[in-house]
Every structure is written in C-alpha cells, then in structure tokens.
Amino acid sequence: MEIIHGKGVSGHMVRGKLRIIRHIRHTAAHIFTSAENEKERFREACAKVKDELTDLQKQTAEKAGEKEAEIFAIHRMMMEEEDFGECTSDLISEGKTAEEAVLQTGETLAKMFLAMDSPYMQARAVDVRSVSERIADVLNGRETTDFTMESPGIIAADDLTPAETVMLDKNMILGFVTERGSDNSHTAILARTMDIPAVVDIGSIDDKFDGKDCILDGNNGVLYIEPDAEIGRVYDDSCLYDLQKKKAEEQYRGKRCITSEGTSIRICANAGGIDDVMEAAANDAEGIGLFRSEFLFMRYGRCPTEEEQFSVYKEAVSHMSGRETIIRTLDAGADKQLKWIPSTVQENNPALGLRAVRLCLRHSALLYTQLRALYRASAFGPIAAMIPMITIPEELKQVKRIAEQAMESLRMENIQYNPYMPIGIMIETPSAALYAEELAELCDFFSIGTNDLIQYTLAADRENPEVIYLTRPLPKSVMQLMEMTAAAGKKAGIPVGICGELGNDESMTAFFLHIGITKISVPPAQILRIRGKVLESIREESLQKAKELF
Amino acid sequence: MQTIEYNIQDENGIHARPAGIIVSTAKKYKSAITIRISGTEKTADAKKLFAVMGMGVTKGDRLQITAEGEDAGEALMKLEAEMRSAGL
Predict the structure, then answer these.
(1) Which residues of A214-253 are buried (b: 16+ CB within 10 A; e: fewer)?
(2) Residue A524 near residue A278 (C-beta atoms within 8 A)
(3) Which of these, A63, A285, A313, B83, could form a disulfide with B88 (CB 3.0-4.6 Å)?
(4) How many separate domains does chain B show?
C-alpha cells in the first residue's frame, strides 16, 4: 500500500481505479509563415476561444451557479487585454509562430502571478495558463485533453483547469487528485460546489500507479494506492454508502413537493453567510429559510454599518434569483456574545437573559439600522425579516414600531424599498407557542426554531449530556407546542416553517406535514435528501387515503 | 481630476472576480482612471486587468482612485458602488 498526502479540498471518500492523465504540452508543430499570417491566425483563434468561453460560462452557471461561472468571464477578459495581445504580437514579430507566442505570453503572465505574495493571486497563474493553452489548442487544431472514462474511476492529473473541472462527467469521475494546485484555486472551489471529492498538491505521482485500485479521502487529503484490507474495509463501506446516497438524492433535483390537498411544501436552506447561499442555490433550494445575520456582526469587531449590511443582504437575495430569502435579525447574547456591546449587568443565566430580540430592543439603534438595511435590500428581491426569540406580543409590537420608523426615514430620503416586506417571527419559547394565535395576527409568517423551543420547554441545556435523555425521543409536550403553532398559523392564513436541527431529522418529516408545516429549512447539503423524504411521506399519505376510499 | 479613497475589506483583496468588475466598469468611461495603494508607489491603470490584479491589493489596503476626464465624477461613483456591492 502506498499512502500519498495532499490538500483535501472537497468531499468524502471514494474508491476506484486510478487513471493518470497528463496534459500534452504544446510544442508548436506549425511552421512560421509570415508575421502577418501568424497574427491573423492568432486573431482567428482568439475569436473562436471567446465563443467557447462564453459557452462555458453559460454551462457553468447552470451546473454550479453564476458566481462560479464568472471565472470564464475573467478568462475572456484576460485574452481581450491589450497586454496579452501586444505581448503575443511582439513575439510573433520576432519570428515566433502564433502557438509559440501565445504560450510564451501565458507563461510570462503566469510568472507575474507566481511572484506575488498572496497565495490566492499565485493560484491565478493557472487561469492565465489555461487561457493561453486554450488558444494554442485551437491553433494546433488539437483536441483538448481528454478526461472521458470508460468506467468510473479516480483521475490523477498534473493539474486541472476550472474549465476541465466543470466539464468532468460526475457519473464517471468519482474524484480527482492533482499534482499541483491549491485549495484556493477556482478548481478547488468548483469541486466543492459540484461535490466531487478532490485532493490537490500531492506532488508528482508515478505513472506506474496508473490503473491501480485506490481510495481517495477528500476530507483528509489522502490517496491510498492499493489499499490494504483494513483501510479497504473502513473506506469501502463509507464510500459506497455516500455514493449510493448521493445518486439516489439527485433524482429529487428540480422536483417540487405538493400534497394531495394541493399545498406546496418548500424545502429551503439555512445559511450562515454568502457561501452557504451559493451552495443553497446550487443544491436547488426553494429559498433561504434562515439566513443568520450574526456573522456580519462578529466579523468587524464593531457594529456593521447600514451600507455593509445592505450590500450583503442584497448579494444574498440576488444569488437566490427570485426565491424568497429570509434574514434573521441579530440573534446575539447567550452563547453568542458580542464584545462591542456594552453589558449592563452581570448575567448569571445568559440563556434566559438579554439575548436576540431582547438585546435588539434594549439597543434599538441596532435593530433600526438592520431593518433599514433590510428594507433597502428588499427593493432588489424577495427579502423577508425574521425576529428571533419573541416571547410576548408586546415585543413584536415594539419591533413593528421600529420597522415603521425605518420605512418612514427611507420615504423621507426617497430611497426605494418594499413596504410589504414580510416580517415574521421565530417560535422558540413555549410562551410564544401559547401566544401563537395572537402573534399570528401581528406578523406575516412563523418559523419554529426547534433547538431553543426544545431547550426552553424541557428546561434542558442541549449541551449538557446529563439531561439529553429528556430530549430523546422528543416528548409530546414539545410536539403539542409545535402543533398549536401550526394550527394558529393556518387559522390566520400565514405560512409556518421549521428551521432548526429537527428539520433535518427524517423521522420527524411525516409529523411536520401532518400538522401543516409548509416549509422545511435545512443545511444546503441536506435539501435533496429531505425533499426525497417529504415526497415519500406525501405518497404514503395519499396511499393511505386511497385505501380508506375502497 | 477627482480622487476618492476606498478601504479594502475583502479577505482576499482584489482577486480575480472584483478585478474583472473594476476593469469592466472603468472601461465604460472616457476618463483616465488610476488606482494607487496609499503610502506606496504601486499604481495601475484601472482599465487593465493584469495591471489591476498585479498590484496585489490585500485586505486593509487603502486605495486612492483618481479619474481625469469629462465623466470623472460619474465614473468614480459607479466604481465605488460596484466595488462595494462586490464586497471589496
């Protein structure tokens, strides 16, 4: 057994035959004609590559998302740069063929990037090389490196360009390793988004390993060649399991859940930042059910400005292209303390203290600024605000007064916003569930925060192993509170969703549908799995109904 | 000639995507636009991708962006807005 370490950039474990593929380095076979002729060939090749890149950008946008696709726009800009064209032209004038000239230009510019301090910029050398090689390919009339496989396996390449990565056939390529590359490269980012296990920077790999059985651990960055029985057992199980699960889940992409009564159940994503929003979009989320705005407040070590918040909210909603994005207002305090907020009293029991909406009402400028940013972003897409930890109706009334003030000020300043931006609340205290009917009249939606609802109902700290027995199996008390919440929502005609760990628990799905939950929000990677479970529950339910008819 | 100042907050500085946004925005205007990192000699023509990327702008750098021409004011406003919405 041979063990090779690299940088794990993406995914789980896979096992398969290793296929070593090396790029053919282009040695210009074409013979120099005249400078004019060579420049003309270069121009023609550029035009063709420009079309190719436009095409690739479109394909990537569909497969992995708009943001991932922008790299090909950058590639196009690189080749349209005067520097790029001039440098190539100069070399041609010196008597080089178009192929030689463009490859040399690529190399010169790649060196510039490699000489820079930032690892991120060094990784851009791949991009500029990729552009010049693409043009050289066209000039040579040669096909690009062939990554097609006859049977599923793991690719070992000298390097992969983003373009090659996105063109990989996910059914045949179980994973890949590259000799070079960094975890900052667009290739690595793409691998993560496409959920292909990948390990980069493994150093040189001997050709003798071609065709050998191997196990790739994308999490830990290890490639086992001809693994021994023990590692084989450990990894083989997990790799098969993951693969089967993933494949089974893919069938739910693009599917929508509609109950026998015609109610649609939306599977949305929880997000902790913009990256998660992109992952959600890539995983076919029908919206963002919970965007935790805390990261914005932790990032700077000070209160983020309205402008900073606005640009993040706007970016989030734009990534979701028309699907609802629910942003939770600041949920700090308790286990998420912000150092820059002056503490008033020493709290002996922070979980029951000044946290979430309580903190925001105590320092109402915080909430005012956040709501203004949210309203401003609401002019750019379907954004909703969600208030955490509402315990009594009076708190919600106060929040709504601040929202009115925020709208009023935007009106005065002639800034666009959506006056109908929904404001919903999280139901995460028993008191809120008991007040559900009254609260439903005051807001536009409910979302049940199961983690806190469980903790506060059972008076059991979720991190204390000694009291975990109280929470499993889930006691009827908690279920009843959820049922009351859903019923109150239904009565008032507002949607009720679930966001919290429980949404992720398949054994609860049927119960949620039964009580009338219409939205389940889970981590991006779980969307397809939960959608599958919802579809199954709906099928079982209608089957049951059909049986009762006969 | 007009100048604005801009603080870079993006973890990766001006990387590929924002550089693309800066250059494509700058190219829409007639004005000559130059970027300088405050306190250094590093400058770049905002219309040249390799030059902008090559500056190696990192988080915390303060930029002076200067525009000269008939549409200088408009160009700077638009650039700032685009950079801001790119999270730079």
Answers:
(1) bbbbbeebbbbbebeeebbeebbebbeebbeebeebeebe
(2) no
(3) B83
(4) 1
Looking at domain A262-549, does it have CATH number 3.20.20.60?
yes
Q: For domain A27-140, which architecture applies?
A: Orthogonal Bundle (1.10)
Instruction: Specify the CATH class of A153-250 in words.
Output: alpha beta
Choose the catalytic residue: A46, A186, A257, A360. Answer: A186
Three-class secondary structure of residue A524 per DSSP: helix
**A190, containing H or E segment:** helix A186-194
Quote the ipTM score: 0.74
Q: Which domain holds residue B57?
A: 2-85
Round to whole Å and give the CA distance between A362 and A342: 11
Report how far residue A457's alpha carbon sits from residue B31's, in angstroms, rounded to the nearest whole number.
Answer: 64
Are the CB atoms for A257 and A265 separated by under 8 Å? yes
Query: Residue B46 belongs to a domain with what CATH number?
Result: 3.30.1340.10
If we measure between CA atoms, which residue out of A253, A259, A254 comes closest to residue A513? A259
B15 classed as catalytic: yes
For chain A, helix, strand, coil in percent to 5 are 55, 15, 30
**A374 neighbors A326 (Cβ within 8 angstroms):** no
Please check whether residue A30 is in contact with residue A248, taking contact to mean a CB–CB distance below 8 angstroms: no
Chain A: give the shortest CA distance to residue B51, in Å: 9
Q: What is the pLDDT of residues A248-303, one digit of tens each?
A: 888 899 889 998 888 999 999 998 888 789 989 999 999 999 998 987 887 666 78
What ranges do the domains of chain A cover? 27-140, 153-250, 262-549
Of A83, A121, A182, A311, which to mutate for an interface test with B (greatest number of B Cβ within 10 Å)?
Answer: A121
State the smallest CA–CA distance between residue A132 and chain B in angstroms: 14
* Tens of pLDDT, residues B30-87: 999 999 998 888 899 999 888 888 888 888 889 999 999 999 989 998 999 888 888 8
For A77, the closest of B13, B23, B54 (CB atoms) is: B23
Rounded to two decimals, the pTM is 0.54
